[in-house]
Every structure is written in structure tokens, then in C-alpha cells.
Amino acid sequence: MRWYDPLLYPFAAIYDGITYYRNRMFETGKKKSISFLIPTVVVGNLNLGGSGKTPMVEFLIELFLPHLKLATLSRGYGRKTKGFLIANDDLGPFEIGDEPFQIFEKYGKEVSVTVGEKRTLAIPEIISQKPQTELILLDDAFQHRYVKGDYYILLTTFQKPFFSDRILPLGTLRENRSGANRADVIVVTKCPDQISESEKELYIEKIHNIVEVPVLFSGIEYGDPFPVFNQHLELLKKVILVSGIADNQLFVSEAKSRYEVVETITFEDHHRYKEADLMKLSSLVKEHHNCLVLTTEKDAVKLKNKAFNKYLAEIPIFALPIKIKLAEKDKEFLFGQITKIVKDKSYIREI
After folding, report:
1. Thinking of the domain 5-68+134-221+325-344, which architecture would CATH place it in?
2. pLDDT digit string, tens, across residues 231-274
3. Which residues, 6 or more positions from 162, have their beta carbon under 8 angstroms from its beta carbon?
4. Residue 346 pLDDT > 80, yes or no?
5. Where are the chain's structural domains?
6. Which of 31, 144, 191, 290 could form a disulfide with 158 if both were Cys (CB 3.0 to 4.6 A apart)?
7. How far apart are alpha carbons 19 and 22 in whole angstroms?
8. How many CB atoms lie within 10 A of CB 289?
9. 23 has a pLDDT exceeding 80
10. Cα–Cα distance measured from residue 135 to residue 346, given in angstroms and rounded to the nearest whole number
11. Is residue 169 classed as helix, strand or coil in its secondary structure?
């Protein structure tokens, strides 16, 4: 126990009471959840950030893209705009948010990437403006109770599972652990490659003490770094790491296993880069000579801000891509579960 925990107990109790009352309002029908005819899959977590929601959405996109017309919907955390927007070439991360922009850059030609803080209003807009859509993936919407999703995927990290976490501000849980009862499946993310069957059984047992749903285990797979600006740059062995994500431990560990890391610059999650950050970065690159900047995909989209070009044009910057790694049988399980929902709602006849 931390020395200041007793001071936080009253605030945690109040927060727990408020979120319990809100959830209870939905469960008793005093607050209404809207179910839509179009199939919807909710991806979310119980804790604050860092559980791999965007990689999971990208995983689902790649899983269903050959079979269905997809749309993604998130509120677009950190954007400077309001209301419903469909991503296009004229909109950047400041207009639609970091994660939606990242998804748009990868899949924008094949997937409708949308943002809207009021999902109950955004979904009808998707149906109206993108009538070919057959499945909507709702990113970070586990606590958004106004929409009744058809399938709920709850993520929790191997390093900090929700069953051992505590409610805010004592821990990082947005709501009580019992919120996991809304999940149709729980995916334990960021698992080490060497995870044993006994470790899996322990996690399953602890999760099933709270909710009896299937539990899947996923790892992280890093791809080859790609240049953020100049496509003709070559990889160097010395790197400066830059990241502004909820938990950069795996990113740093992977980078150190591949390169000589000469500096590590760590910002808070959803950090908004300023000119001072870029000036510091430029100075470090000059100081260390023959080195490059290695960052995350999430940070790379923010560094593409045109206002930063004068600082970054001559700096070799690479992004390290990340993907969800899931066993084939677990892929087939998710595919079958979601496919059944789409068929049952008669949105399409066969996949």
C-alpha cells in the first residue's frame, strides 16, 4: 500500500458509487440504450488507456476486410473539432484524433473511418452517408452505454489485468470490475511470448471469478520500421526513441533488442508535440551523429503536422509498426462469433 492511499479511499468510494449508479440506471431501463439494425462490435477496456484498443481494431479490420464493408467509429480523443466527421485527405489528427488518423492512413481507401462523440447520432450518419456499410467497429466504447452493441470485446493487459487493479483514483479502473459482465469475450493483451499454460489458467480462473466468458490471450508483433517522411532513408544502428503512449515499456524493450538506443524521450499519452519538443529532438540528432529517431505509429501521425516540417525535414524518422498476435483457433473463434451476429441481423446472407 502506498502511504497516501488512505487519503484516496473516500474519492474512490465516491467515484465507484457514481459509476455504479450510472450503470444501474442503464440496467434497470431508467436510462435507455439504443440497439441498431446494423451490426456493431464494441472494443474497449475497464482501465485508462494502454491496453491495445487500436491494434485490436486494426486486427478486426484485417480479419473482416475481405468479407464485409466496414466502418470504424470513435469519439476522436484529443481532436479540436466537434460532431460527426468522416475521415478524408483534407483532415488530420487535429481534426479527427490520433488513432482514427492512424487507421485512416492504413485503411482509408477500403474502410470508412468516422468520429463522433455522440455515437447514437453518429451511427445513423454512417448508415445514411455510407449505406454499403455492413459492420461498425466502435473503438473505446465500453463505457458508452447509450449504444447497445451486439458484441463486446473487453481488453486487459497481461501486465496489469483488471482483476488486480483498483477503481480511480486508487488505481486505473474507470468503473468497478463488475463492469466486465458486459463483455462477450475478454482478450488478455501484450502477453509475453513465453506465457505458460499454468499462467493462462491462473488468469482465466481469476477472470471467471468475476465473469464467465471466453478468455483469449494475445501478444504483440512488431514489424519492420518504415520511414515517416523520406521513403529513401536507410536504417541506422543508433536510435533516439520518442514516444507518447500510455505504456512504452514493450516499445522500448523491442527497440533495445534491435538497436543501440542512445536517448529515450518519453511523453504522456496523447502528448501534443510542440516546437520546443522538435527543437530538442533536432539538437539531439546533431549531437549523436549518424542516428535516427524511432517512434510509434501513434506518435508518427502527430509528427506529420505540416507546422513541424521545418524541424523534421532533414531528420531521419522511422515508425515501428505493431500488430496483435492471436492464435489461429482464437482468430477463428472471433470470426465465427462476429459473423454469426452479422448473419443473425440479416445484414448479409453469407460470408
Report:
1. 3-Layer(aba) Sandwich (3.40)
2. 666 778 899 999 998 889 999 999 999 999 999 999 998 888 98
3. 45, 46, 47, 156, 173, 177, 180
4. no
5. 5-68+134-221+325-344, 226-320
6. 191
7. 5
8. 9
9. yes
10. 12
11. coil
